Amino acid sequence: MAFVMGLTGAHADEGMWLLKLMQQQHLEDSLRKAGLQLPPSALYSETAPSLRECIGIFGGGCTGEVVSGDGLVLTNHHCGFSYVHEMSAIGHDYMKDGYFAHNRSEELRTPESLTFTFVLGITDVTNEVNAEAKKRHADEYTRQSMGFLAPLAQKMLKKSAFSKKKGMKARIVPYFGGNQFYIFYEQVFGDVRLVANPPYNIGQFGGNSDNWMWPRHNADFCMFRIYADKNGEPAPYSKSNVPLKVKKFLPISLKGMNEGDYTMIMGFPGTTSRYLTAAEVKLRCEATNQPIIVAGNPLLKYYKELMDQSDENRLLLEDEYASWGNSIKNFGGMNEAVEKIHLIDQKKAEEERFRQFAAQSGKPEYKDVIERIEKLCQTYTDTLHDATLYRIALQDQSLWIRPSLVEAYEKALKGGKKKDIEAAKKAIMDYCMEHNAGVDLKIDCGKVLLLTPYFVKERKLKAMPAYLNGNKDVESYIRAIYAGTVFANKDRLTEALAKNDAQVLKNDPLYKQVVDLLDYSEQATKGLQTYNAQRKELDKIYVRGLCEMYDWSKAPDANFTLRMTYGHVMDLIPRDGVRYDWRTVLDGMFEKESKSESDYFINERLRKLFDAKDFGRYAREDGKLPACFLSNNDITGGNSGSGVLNAKGELIGLAFDGNIESLSGDLKFNPALQRCINVDIRYVLFIIDKFGGAGYVLDELDLR
């Protein structure tokens, strides 16, 4: 623990703190001063009941929290989106119409990909990682790679106290630029069932128009239940499984909140990059964000037009549309915010302080590290730009084939063994039927036709995939792929394979295109590998130096591990003459209503409840139904679905968004502008109870 023992003076409100390090980071005093009424041990403990037991990873990239002794879980509507979308079809459209179980027998099986993961233990393994790296002569890039860390984590799991438990996995995660490593022991439950999902025009009211905006009025939540075997252990879906019994779950406050009240959020924030240099911030904006914005905006428009044409198109595209809309608005907003707050100038000022510190530190590795990073960024800006643009504009086409499968087929034919030939044929057929059979060729072709010119026009370097070099009729070339490939049609592929001639497949237009794309990618990747290897080495030095300069008072960057952030309910003054109240009510939804803009269509069942003012016990004292509220908690992607807790550890809302004024927050926290947008738990319960008729779950909740 020597690496972090010098941590002092945590900054109030800023930071996604690793609770395992509360004492070392001297968080206890800061939390008490901020208003926490619980003992710090109630937040995180591996031996006594704590909030740790109530928080988990929902799916692959969100947070959820357990709110009953029978495994009920709350998260965001947009976190459950892809899973509920996969369950939906014409006739049972759980996205458009919503879904509410009325008893446990109606709780619906979800896709196998949906899991819920609890953290059981966290251990510092820095010494073990370093020792293994030394033994294997691993460089810094390798040391921080999954290929290196994942096998080591599995070895440690087998030797740990958790080795005999079912559903266990372990992951080792680097902190502070790879200067420290922690292993997370996690238990995964694979039977998670849908309990409640509001209709799209409630859960996502405002759509992409309101994304990252305030004020908000959408009930961004959904509810699931974790099931286990009769022993309470993780198990695949089975009708014999029972609701997971838990000893610790979150109580819920119906009392609401006031401006200035203490708030805290526990969850799994995805990624922040707050230790970057000025050159790295510039690189992020120009080489990562901008290509996505350039290619993404026309794609978003294309999807929207198609979705408006039919429910079939909407069901096919709405998940991808939502994902793209979020990314584009995020990256565009980040670039604008970086410019508005003069973040690069702020970083340069920090670098000057670092140079002074470096000169006094007596550590030569600090002396020129900033200049070395700057040179590296300048050298590879165009390479990174084109790699991003390639991934978005060309590689993202749905229609695909793996050349290695065709090569294996050719090898089998040369070997002449019938068993090998049939196995190779089956591998090709299985891949194509799984990957290509569900592709809407017309829509995907349209996407490729739309985006390819952006790559040709916007790339920085001369290099292009071979099929684009000197091709004066790219459109005809692409249309020929979609019209002529055998890899998208079972009958045509069967006929081609029956010829026992690999050259037939190699002459296929899709095969030729994919080979060209992969050849281009391989050449581009060489530069990226060099860049990434050098950057890991330099960033490790710079981050260690920065931490020493700040006396280890800063939280580590987010990396999708369990963190806590604390703050207060607070309004927002984004610019001169503008002030946003910290709360909204349902009335605001009807003020936004539009008869022509689909983002603002009103749910008619909700309208009846609103007109009747039938809000039950969830109304405020003035009779209005609370909708959303603001706090200044430091969050990022991955925190979606995180519960917002009051000073007593009671659930008062769910975090679901940030504000557009603070989208540079992943690069630098700005206390004046950064806000967390939360749905009020009373709004959530109103929708479950009064709108959805799923009141049976209320008996399980600890309502206060």
Care to give the gist of this entry?
The protein is α+β, with helices and mostly antiparallel strands and 704 residues long. Helix content is 43%, strand content 15%.
Structural class: alpha+beta
Largest sheet: 11 strands, antiparallel
Strand content: 5-15%
Terminal Cα span: 40 Å
The percentage helix is 40-55%
Describe the fold and architecture.
The protein has a domain at 278-540. By secondary structure, the chain is an alpha+beta fold. Helix content is 43%, strand content 15%. The longest helix has 41 residues, at 509-549. The radius of gyration is 27 Å and the shape is globular.
Topology:
Elements: H1 27-34, E1 55-58, E2 62-66, E3 72-75, H2 77-87, E4 99-100, E5 108-109, E6 116-124, H3 126-136, H4 140-143, H5 146-159, E7 168-175, E8 180-189, E9 191-197, H6 200-203, H7 207-210, E10 222-228, E11 242-243, E12 262-267, H8 278-307, H9 311-340, H10 343-361, H11 369-395, H12 403-415, H13 418-435, H14 441-458, H15 474-484, H16 490-497, H17 502-506, H18 509-549, E13 563-568, E14 572-575, E15 578-580, E16 583-585, H19 587-592, H20 604-612, E17 626-631, E18 643-645, E19 651-658, E20 676-680, H21 681-691
Antiparallel strand pairs: 1-2, 1-6, 2-3, 3-10, 4-9, 5-9, 6-8, 7-8, 9-10, 10-11, 12-13, 12-18, 14-15, 16-17, 17-20, 18-19, 19-20
